[in-house]
Amino acid sequence: MAKVKYLMQGLSKRENHRNYLETLIGLEDANEIILSVAFLTSEGVYVLEESLKKNREKITFYVGCRNGVTSLQGIISLLNIGINPILVDTGSNNFIFHPKVFFAQSNNQALSTVGSANFTYGGLIKNLESSALLELDFSVIEDKVYVDDLLSTFNTLSSSFPENVFQIKTVDEAQLLFEEGRLINEKTSKVVVKGKSKGSKRVAPSMQLEHDHVNVPKREKTSLVGSKDDEKSETVIVQDKGLNLVEVWKSKELTKRDLNIQTGGKTNVTGSMLLKKGTYKVDQQVYFREKVFADLEWQPKEGKPSYFHYANATFYFIVEGVDFGSYLLEMKHDTRTNTKTYHQRQPMTHLFWGESRHLISNPHLLGKTLRLMKVRNSKSEFLLEIN
User: Fold this and answer.
1) pLDDT digits (tens, 9 = 90+) for 7-50
2) Calpha distance 250→220 (Å, rounded)
3) How far is CA 72 from CA 178, 179, 305, in A?
4) Distance between CA atoms of residues 244 and 251, nearest Å
5) What secondary structure letter does DSSP report for 143?
6) The domain 228-386 is classified under which CATH number: 1.20.1070, 3.40.1000, 3.10.450, 2.40.330?
7) Most CB atoms within 10 A, among 103, 119, 341, 354?
């Protein structure tokens, strides 16, 4: 059976993942090495650079991206060594690639580490991190099964999700990933960075994974326009502009009706989304017209009933962490207060998807939530984020 040891980094100078990985990567007569981490930075590569160089031809390096940590500089550091990493983009920033597995094998034995350490300075040296260290003997059938399962799992990952698991071979390819928001720049200050889509196309599909579900109680959202919480904002990079935003509304789980997804039969999609209470406790009949969109120019439209008022606004779209640019969208508000719909306290404001419909009419977005944010110091700019 495998010999197993436990490594706890941070309790002594010599007990760290960097020192152990020098042994693993330098395994005598190694014929295959697999390194897998969620996060990678240039400092993480630097502290193991010499060991990586020695066995670079044998290394397959899996790295997570679109996670706010893996950096352009880290990927370029690997490329400069001669290692072409395989990046794993889940297609969403709502769940990420997270395995921390280090493995090396020769003809007769293998070393394997499974734990918490990433390829960052903190993960390899500074943080409190732990791992199980396995020394495997191929003459033991259980050890050989473990190795076969490990190798098969990573091979299956690549073959099952070719659009999400891909190899980077050039600096230009890495630079493109940075521009799309899937890698960060280590030199910039920490803001919420959203990548850009090319031609309003999805950068990568969301990986459809099998997983259990646990219902977690949701905290009520109380931050409303005009409240004290209104001062809480975030900066988002959209189309090379730093937008200072305040959240003004958040939907419940999105439905086919919200996303304009055809349900079958003769039912036609409406082309719009009703703006309801969502997770906020607002008066859905007046909140959007009188508070969120109060600064817009609302007016009747020729050829339409005079009680319908219309307005236009610019909406930036961020879908699962990717910036899809801006769209001029129309809204409609029913001003009547003597209808059955009004007395039933139904929502009165519609947002028409218009030319953005191809972005949101996507079954993968079902069950996700939409955040509506207002651009500070602007009367007619907003951001819609689905995540």
Assistant:
1) 999 888 789 999 999 999 988 899 999 999 999 999 999 999 99
2) 11
3) 6, 10, 54
4) 21
5) H
6) 2.40.330
7) 119
CATH superfamily, region 3-179: Endonuclease Chain A (3.30.870.10)
Sorted by sequence, the CB contacts under 8 Å of residue 25 that are 6+ apart come out as: 33, 35, 48, 51, 52, 54, 55, 59, 104
- What letter represents residue 89's amino acid? D
- Whether 211 shows a pLDDT value over 50: the answer reads no
Distance, in Å, from the CA atom of 371 to the CA atom of 321, rounded to the nearest integer, reads 12
CA angle 302/308/309 to nearest 5° reads 80
82-96 average pLDDT score: 90
> To which residue do tokens 């959240």 refer?
247
Query: For 226-248, what is each residue's pLDDT tens digit?
Result: 444 444 567 676 766 678 889 99
Within 10 Å of residue 229's Cβ, how many Cβ atoms?
A: 13
Contact by Cβ (8 Å): 222, 229:
yes
Q: For the chain, which residues make up each domain, given as ranges? A: 3-179, 228-386
Whether 288 and 277 have beta carbons less than 8 Å apart is answered as no
* pLDDT tens sequence across 134-190: 999 999 999 999 999 999 999 999 899 999 999 999 999 999 998 888 898 887 644
Q: What is the residue whose two structure tokens read 């919480």? A: 229
SS3 366: coil
CB proximity list for 285: less than 8 A, separation 6 or greater: 342, 345, 346, 347, 348
**Interatomic CA distance for residues 87 and 73, integer angstroms:** 14
Secondary structure (H, E, C), 147-191: HHHHHHHHHHHHHHCCCCEEECCCHHHHHHHHHCCCCECCCCCCC
Question: Which uninterrupted H or E stretch holds 79?
Answer: helix 72-81
Sequence-ordered list of residues with C-beta below 8 angstroms from that of 131, at least 6 positions apart, any chain: 6, 7, 9, 17, 20, 100, 113, 114, 115, 116, 117
> What pTM was computed for the model?
0.65
Distance separating alpha carbons of residues 287 and 105, to the nearest angstrom: 63
